[in-house]
Write a structure and sequence with these properties.
The protein is an alpha+beta fold. The chain has helices spanning 13-23, 45-64, 80-85, 88-91, 157-161, 164-170, 216-233, 281-290, 316-327, 364-374, 388-397, 408-413, 434-441; strands at residues 27-29, 41-43, 69-71, 93-98, 105-107, 130-133, 137-139, 149-151, 177-186, 201-211, 241-245, 257-265, 268-279, 296-298, 303-305, 308-315, 328-333, 336-341, 352-356, 380-382, 402-406, 415-420, 426-430. Helix content is 29%, strand content 28%. It has a seven-stranded mixed beta sheet. A five-stranded mixed beta sheet has the order 20-19-21-22-23, with helices on both faces. The protein has a three-stranded antiparallel beta sheet with strand order 5-4-6. Helix 2 packs across helix 9. The mean pLDDT is 94. The structure holds adenosine-5'-triphosphate. The site of adenosine-5'-triphosphate has 15 residues, from strand 10, strand 13, strand 16 and helix 9.
C-alpha cells in the first residue's frame, strides 16, 4: 500500500513564527537581557492571552461540557514519596550519550538511524548511554540535606492520582469519570530544542479518566478519537495531524496501549499529545506505598476494584506553537505581502480591533465610546496610529478575526464598518447592534 505523500511545509516556517512571536510580543526568551536562560520562555501580552485561550478551550471541552469530568489544581511541590511510588525516581530518565569527536550531548533515542552525530557527522563516535534523571531537585525548609529534598513535578498527573479518593468522594463521582488539570511541569531536558516545542518549564493539560477494569480499551479508543478531533475543531488542518500507535517495544512498562496525536511540524512529524491506557498501575503503586485504600466499591454490582486509567496528556505550550504554525500564512494582496494568522477566533489573542479611520479629533471620541462599550464583552485592541491599511495588517498578523472601523459617515449614521480578517470583506453595522453582531460572529 502506498503511503499518502506528506503535505509540503515551508522550511522557513519555524524561523518566521519565532520572528513573529518576538516582534509582536507572543513569546520572548526568558532573561533575555542576560543572554537568555536554559531553554525557558516568557509569554508576552499576546502570547499570554493566546496561551490562556488554548487552556480555556481545553477546559471547556474537557470539564465544562462534560458531566463526567471534574477539575483539580494540585500543588507543584509534592511529598517525595509520590515520585518513588510513581516510578519517576527510578526510571524517569533519558539515555544520554556524548559525541567523542565534538563533545556535543544527545538523547540516544533521538539519534538518526545511522547513529551518526547530528552535530559533526562523525560515525561510531557516541559514548555508551548514561541514564539521566529529568526531575529538578530542590530543598524544602532551611536545611539543604537529603531529608529535605523535594522535586518540581515533571507531570501534573500524579497530583490527580494522589487526590483520587478526595475528589471521587467530595464530588460523588462514579467510574467512568475523569479528573482534569492544567498546570506547570518541569523537566531537565537534555536536548531542549525548537523554540517552545521542548522546554524545561512548560504547561500540561492532563485528564485521568478512571474506568472499570474491563472498559479500559474501549475508553482508550474513545479518547484517541476525541482528542484528535479537538485539534481539528480548533482549526488545525487534518492533513497535518495523525494518530500514531506505539509499537510494543515503545510502550512504558505500565501501559496497555499508547497513541500519540502527532502534528506535522516544519521539521517533520512530532508529538502533540499522548493518550495512554495506564491500567491500574498508578493507583496500585500509591495504594501500596501510602497504605491508603484507593479501590472503588460499586454498589450496583457489589464489586470492589482498582479503577483503570486512560490518560490524554497534552502540552499547552506545545499546542500553542502548533496552532500558531498551522495558522501562519502569507498572501499577496494588490502587490503587497500580507502576513496573517488564520487562528480560530476562540484562540485569537484579540477578538476585535477598534480602529478610527484616522486620528482626526472628530473620530476619536466615538472610537473611545465604542472601545468602552466592547471592552467588557471581548478582548479588544485600540489603535489609531498610521494608515488604516497598515493597521489592518498589524491585526492580521496577530490573528484578530474582526476589525471595527469608525469613519466620518459614522458621525452621521451611527454605523461602523466590520472588516473580516480572512476574506477582507466589509459590512456596515449600526453601533447599537454591534455587541449582538460580534457575539454571534465570535463563538466561545
Ligand atoms: P517528548 O518525548 O516529545 O519530549 P514525552 O513523550 O516525554 O514528549 P509526555 O511525557 O507524554 O511527553 O508528556 C505529555 C505531553 O506534554 C507531550 O505530548 C507534550 O505536549 C508535553 N510535553 C512533554 N515534555 C515537554 C517539554 N519538555 N516541553 C514542552 N512540552 C512538553
Amino acid at each position: 500500500m502506498s503511503e499518502t505523500p506528506e503535505p509540503a511545509r515551508d522550511p522557513k516556517l519555524l524561523d518566521k513564527v519565532i520572528n513573529l512571536c518576538k516582534r509582536r510580543g507572543f513569546v520572548f526568551q526568558s532573561s533575555e537581557i542576560y543572554g537568555g536562560f536554559g531553554s525557558t520562555y516568557d509569554y508576552g501580552p499576546y502570547g499570554a492571552l493566546m496561551l490562556n485561550n488554548v487552556k480555556a478551550a481545553w477546559w471547556r471541552s474537557m470539564v465544562q461540557l462534560r458531566p463526567d469530568v471534574v477539575g483539580l489544581d494540585a500543588a507543584i511541590l509534592m511529598a517525595p514519596q509520590v515520585w518513588d511510588a510513581s516510578g519517576h525516581l527510578a526510571s524517569f530518565t533519558d539515555p544520554l550519550v556524548d559525541c567523542r569527536e565534538c563533545k556535543e550531548r544527545f538523547r540516544e533515542d533521538l539519534l538518526p538511524e545511522s547513529g551518526a552525530c547530528p552535530h559533526c557527522g562523525a560515525k561510531g563516535s557516541m559514548t555508551e548511554a548514561r541514564h539521566f534523571n529529568l526531575m529538578f531537585k530542590t530543598f524544602v525548609g532551611p536545611v539543604e540535606d537529603d531529608a529535605s529534598v523535594a522535586y518540581l513535578r515533571p507531570e501534573t498527573a500524579q497530583g490527580i492520582f494522589v487526590n483520587f479518593k478526595n475528589v471521587q468522594g467530595a464530588a460523588r463521582m462514579k467510574p467512568p469519570f475523569g479528573i482534569a488539570q492544567v498546570g506547570k511541569a518541569f523537566r531537565n531536558e537534555i536536548t531542549p530544542q525548537r523554540f517552545v516545542f521542548r522546554t524545561r518549564e512548560f504547561e500540561q493539560m492532563e485528564l485521568e479518566f478512571f474506568v472499570p477494569p474491563d472498559e479500559g480499551m474501549k475508553w482508550w479508543e474513545y479518547w484517541c478519537a476525541e482528542r484528535l478531533q479537538w485539534y481539528v475543531d480548533l482549526g488545525i488542518d487534518e492533513s497535518r495531524l495523525r494518530l500514531r500507535q506505539h509499537d510494543a517495544d515503545e510502550l512504558s512498562h505500565y501501559s496497555a496501549g499508547t497513541a500519540d496525536v502527532e502534528y506535522l511540524y516544519p521539521w517533520g512529524w512530532g508529538e502533540l499529545e499522548g493518550i495512554a491506557n495506564r491500567t491500574d498501575y498508578d493507583l496500585t503503586q500509591h495504594m501500596e506505598r501510602s497504605g491508603e485504600d484507593l479501590t472503588y466499591f460499586d454498589q450496583e454490582t457489589d464489586t470492589r476494584y482498582v479503577p483503570h486509567v486512560i490518560e490524554p496528556s497534552a502540552g499547552a505550550t506545545r499546542s500553542m506553537i502548533a496552532f500558531l504554525m498551522d495558522a501562519y500564512d502569507e498572501e499577496e494582496v494588490r502587490g503587497e505581502k500580507r502576513t496573517l494568522l488564520h487562528l480560530d477566533p476562540r484562540l485569537a489573542p484579540v477578538k476585535v480591533a477598534v480602529l478610527p479611520l484616522s486620528r482626526n479629533e472628530q473620530l476619536i471620541p466615538t472610537a473611545a465610546e465604542i472601545g468602552e462599550m466592547l471592552r467588557p464583552h471581548f478582548m479588544i485592541d485600540e489603535d489609531s496610529a498610521g494608515s488604516i491599511g497598515r493597521r489592518y495588517r498589524r491585526q492580521d498578523e496577530i490573528g484578530t478575526p474582526l476589525c471595527v472601523t469608525i469613519d466620518f459617515d459614522t458621525l452621521d449614521d451611527r454605523a461602523v464598518t466590520i472588516r473580516d480578517r480572512d476574506s477582507m470583506g466589509q459590512e456596515r453595522i449600526p453601533i447599537d447592534k454591534l455587541v449582538t453582531y460580534l457575539t454571534e460572529r465570535l463563538p466561545t
